[in-house]
Amino acid sequence: MDALHTAGIRFAEALQSGPPWLEKFWISVTSLADPKSIFTVCFPLAYFLDRKVGVSVLWIGLVSEWLNVVLKWFLFGERPFWWVHESGLASKELVTLRQFPVSCETGPGDPSGHCMITGAALWPLVTALTALASRHSRSLVVNLTPFGAYTLLQLAVGLSRVFVLAHFPHQVVGGILAGAALGWGLQARTPATCTSGFFMATALALLLSSLALHSLVITAGIDVDW
To answer: Which of 177, 151, 196 is nearest to 47 (CA)?
Structure first.
């Protein structure tokens, strides 16, 4: 793993050595793609356009947020900003990395929540836009535009997370793949006809189950808050 982490640090160095204008771009991307935007921006917009799509975005965002936390407890995952010092790499080799206000994230880092949650929750919106495009155009380019934009967004989010030293590249890749798989798998299982009470009860159940799981893991001697 040390070799993989070291390669990730070198990749982050290469990203940070880019043109100065890219710095603002990457920081803007990582801020705008925060998972909370799914609930505060994407869900209201999707719901306004189509109720079923909006509910699907909310449902998948809820489940993927919970699952991301649970996966991080079991996969752990170092954060580049902390690992470069804790591993001793910074004292052995020349490391030219810069710190940003969003660099000092704590907690396990695998998989990337930005990539996983955003990728999963946006999946139903992208498929809906693809279906809409196919009804109005026979152009392959037009029909592939939504998924093309989705892919570029995920790539930009992933690179931004590496740039600010929040994640290693392999954590970003894992988040992107998990997000796409979750979005694809959960879209057809969205409880679109359920009442708001069902979603409140589900959210409460997920919260309580995560607290119970956290307690069990701590009791087992695994410090998930390391």
So the answer is: 196
Note the pLDDT tens digit of each residue in 118-169.
999 999 999 999 988 888 878 888 888 999 999 999 999 999 999 999 999 9
Tokens 């070198």 found at: 10
**Which candidate in 85, 167, 170, 214 is catalytic?**
167
Per-residue DSSP letter, 192:
T
Q: Give the C-alpha distances (Å, rounded to integers) separating 183 from 90, 117, 187, 194.
A: 39, 9, 6, 19
Cβ-based neighbours of 223, under 8 Å, separated by 6 or more: none
**Would residue 167 show up in a list of annotated catalytic residues for this protein?**
yes
Of the residues 114, 136, 170, 214, which is catalytic? Answer: 114
Provide the 10 A C-beta neighbour count for residue 136. 9
Distance CA 27, CA 156 (A): 11
Spatial CB neighbours of 143, under 8 Å, sequence gap ≥ 6? 130, 133, 134, 137
**CA–CA separation, 57 and 54 (whole Å):** 5
Q: Residue 6: CB partners within 8 Å, gap ≥ 6? A: 89
pTM (predicted TM-score): 0.89
The HSE-up count of residue 40 (CA atoms within 13 Å, CB side) is 6
SS3 content of the chain, % helix, strand, coil (to 5): 75, 0, 25
114 is catalytic: yes
What sign has the CA pseudo-torsion 126, 130, 136, 139?
A: positive
